[in-house]
Amino acid sequence: xxxxxxxxxxxxxxxxxxxxxxxxxxxxxxxxxxxxxxxxxxxxxxxxxxxxxxxxxxxxxxxxxxxxxxxxxxxxxxxxxxxxxxxxxxxxxxxxxx
Length: 98
Prior knowledge:
By secondary structure, this protein is an all-alpha fold.
């Protein structure tokens, strides 16, 4: 079983950036992300290091358990680590009741 640990903001950003790289390489999911967010290639490139953009990308991934599982499997992460990463990024500590 993969183990989860408490993350610093730098660790969270690095993991989120790896998740973004995975998303960009996913030919099936990338068009859905672009369609849902309106982010184009320029936005992906220009905002890749922006913690708020990375947080929004993780919010998108967390809309579907299968997407989370695929991304985590590709990165060797525990499934619950996406939520931990999101929590460590801007706005992650806010409560959402959706």
